[in-house]
Amino acid sequence: MNIDTIVVFTLLLVTIALFIWDRIRMDLVAMMVVVVLALSGIITPAETVSGFGQSLVVMIAGLFIVGEGLFRTGVAAAVGGWIMRMGGQSEKRLLLVLVPVVAAMSAIMSSTGAVALFIPVVLSMCRTAKLKPSHLLMPLSFASLIGGMMTLIGTPPNMVASTQLHAAGLEPFGFFDFTPIGAVILVFGTLYLVYVAPRLLPDSAVRSTEHPRLKEFAERYGIEDNLHCLRVRKDSDLVNHSVSDLLLRTRFEVTVFAIRRDGNLVSSLMPVLSETLIESGDVLLAYGQAEGIEQLCIETGCLFLGFPAEERTRMDKEFGVAEVLLHGRSPMIGKTIKDGRFREQYNLSVIGVLRAGKPLATRFNGEPLQFGDTLLLAGGWRYIEALEERHNFVMLETPAEMTETSARWGHAPVALVIMLLMLGLMISGVLSSLAAILLAAMAMILSGCLTMDEAYKSLNASSLVLIAGMLPLALAMQKSGGLDLIVSALLTFLGTSAPIFICAALFVLTSVLSQFISNTATTVLIAPISIAIAQGLGLNPEPFMMTIAIAASTAFSTPIASPVNTLVLVPGHYRFIDFVRVGLPLQIMSMVITLIMTPMIFPF
């Protein structure tokens, strides 16, 4: 063992120890590795930073942007709403829908992004159905990890394993090569998470600090029975006039706050601004008492449609409410709703007023506003978000739906098409994975699914730096002779064993390391060792690489094993031992399935 080998092994052990210690950020540890390697002279200065130019790092960055596009356009939130409708009030039924859906989403987008999106959705479902968040949040996290096992782009370890095969001059894994094993683990994992895990999980109550739903705002202000839909007939007096011109609030005490205009490819539900002209066939979303609505229909030639549940669900995607408080210096004090010109100034409509904690009657438009009044403003989410920059009142509360929707949900079909085209190009082989991902990322930005600033924010810089910083360590192990030393030792210890036992040893090693350090970093370190062992025994490296790729995603047994576990730790009120109790059986189950199926698909 030469001095270079000693330095590399020492650096490797110190790196793992720092990862487990967790007092220094992992990306900073990775940069420290780069600096030490640059000073050591074991690899050249260019090689120490070569990880930042690796196609793997660029592909993962591109996938962050594509996933952000799906989030910003509300695609993922729409899936969450569907789960709520399908799951109902039953915990088991909810899990039977939630686990496969989250796994499927995590197979094509960031697992961390999927979990971050679904945490408020799950907490909302628990609040509505009076379920225990601790029984749903850990299964949510584990479902995303299982989903990462199912495709080439599902998780960085899969891409690491594939690119390492290609770097060794071998055929890389295809997009769906992971799917058979991942799908079987998903089936058994779903049954485990639905029927066994809830018995092992702690009980926790729903947090009372969650934002209320839109329905709760409606109940608080007494407006739940005063929302209506009206269709404008061809001969209606409203056609080609604005709401301001028609004085509907003054004449009928009715506030029109949105218009649904049919006939476009994308839904055209729009806020009513002071200059918005009403057209024949429009559906008006209005607030007012029944007698005022009836009188409006009679005098203006509108058709009353009630307020169907599907219209409410559709409205929630683009429209919401905000509760604001009039402070002592507000210029609105002493003015009526009409005089306050809320629609002209803020593009929002006042649909409710609370005074001393009690709702005023619907005919509050002529009532002068007082200090301490709270107003319920309705309109487009983007205008509600802009309220935070105004100082005429204090923003008290926004509904939970505000974090589950997007101002660009109308771009959802575009985002879906971009994602499907990316997958099609990758699967067909028409373009390389790198080219397909970069093309999709660029299309997300150019199509308006997200802005350039949002694209930059979506890049998980710490993950990218971690991967780029650890890649040169694997190269240093190879150049220093450390890799050959490890392979020789393992061949001596396992050389007479059956290949399946070697795979089992690699699975255990990879899985255990992934509980304490980044699964991507673990794969970067173990992958070249696995290839060298296979080649040393004259065996096909593919089953060994598939084994470690799946093992790297079995980060179930500690809250620090994966960012998704860390995300659910606090809202689920979990302890370290909860992850061990629930995650370890799932880990063992995944290993058994992998060791049975891998040789069947990828013979030794």
Could you describe the 3D structure shown?
The protein has helices at 3-21, 26-40, 45-48, 55-72, 75-87, 91-106, 111-129, 134-148, 156-167, 179-195, 197-200, 214-220, 243-246, 248-252, 290-300, 309-318, 337-340, 342-346, 381-386, 412-428, 433-446, 452-458, 461-480, 482-494, 499-514, 519-536, 541-552, 563-569, 576-601; strands at 227-232, 255-260, 270-271, 283-287, 302-306, 319-325, 349-355, 358-359, 374-380, 394-397. The protein is an alpha+beta fold and 604 residues long. It has a domain at 212-398: Regulator of K+ conductance, C-terminal domain (Alpha-Beta Plaits). The protein has a five-stranded antiparallel β-sheet, covered by helices on one side. A five-stranded antiparallel β-sheet has the order 8-7-9-6-10. Strand 7 and strand 8 (358-359) form a beta hairpin. The longest helix has 26 residues, at 576-601. The chain is elongated, with a radius of gyration of 29 Å. This is SLC13 family permease.
